[in-house]
């Protein structure tokens, strides 16, 4: 991994649909050398995937809720059952096992507070091993990125 690879990754994170010719120009490489490097970076797993980032508001899901979950225990089977079940909830965008006051932090999207109440009732309250849940509604997203520092 050299500086050219880092420049390629920086550009790809912000413009995943950029053509190889444009990318090569931005990082000062020939198109063929750039293509080889991108293929290597993909093959080595530095680039996991290319996705379209949708606008949650335009998709009718403008409400973001962070849900802190405490489980009834820490046994492997409790953690595994919870993780397997939460992965099937379509409104949960992220699930993180965390250290601290809670066991998991979820990022959930909803149409509004009433929709979240339905998601809570139908899905979250039925997750296995949950002892406590605390929900916090985001009032406004101040900053959001998917780009890692390179």
TrEMBL record:
Record domain HTH asnC-type: where: 1-62
Keyword set includes DNA-binding: yes
GO molecular-function term, one example from the UniProt record: sequence-specific DNA binding
UniProtKB keywords: DNA-binding, Transcription, Transcription regulation
UniProt entry tagged with the keyword Metal-binding: no
GO biological process terms on file: regulation of DNA-templated transcription; response to amino acid
InterPro entries cross-referenced by the UniProt entry: ArsR-like_HTH (IPR011991), AsnC-type_HTH_dom (IPR000485), Dimeric_a/b-barrel (IPR011008), Tscrpt_reg_AsnC-like (IPR019888), Tscrpt_reg_AsnC/Lrp_C (IPR019887), WH-like_DNA-bd_sf (IPR036388), WH_DNA-bd_sf (IPR036390)
Superkingdom classification of source: Bacteria
SUPFAM superfamilies reported for this sequence: Dimeric alpha+beta barrel (SSF54909), Winged helix' DNA-binding domain (SSF46785)
One cellular component term from this protein's GO annotations in UniProt: cytosol
Record protein name field: AsnC family transcriptional regulator
Organism: Actibacterium mucosum KCTC 23349
């Amino acid at each position: 991994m050299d500086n050219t690879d880092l420049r390629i990754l920086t550009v790809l994170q912000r413009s995943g649909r950029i053509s190889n010719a444009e990318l090569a120009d931005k990082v000062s490489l020939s198109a063929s050398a750039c293509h080889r490097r991108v293929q290597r970076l993909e093959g080595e797993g530095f680039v996991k995937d290319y996705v379209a980032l949708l606008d949650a508001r335009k998709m009718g899901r403008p409400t973001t809720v962070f849900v802190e979950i405490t489980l009834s225990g820490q046994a492997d089977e409790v953690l595994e059952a919870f993780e397997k079940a939460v992965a099937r909830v379509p409104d949960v965008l992220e699930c993180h096992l965390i250290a601290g006051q809670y066991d998991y932090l979820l990022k959930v999207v909803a149409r509004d507070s009433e929709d979240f109440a339905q998601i809570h009732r139908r899905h979250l309250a039925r997750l296995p091993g949950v002892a406590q849940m605390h929900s916090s509604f985001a009032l406004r997203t101040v900053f959001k990125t998917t780009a890692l520092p390179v």
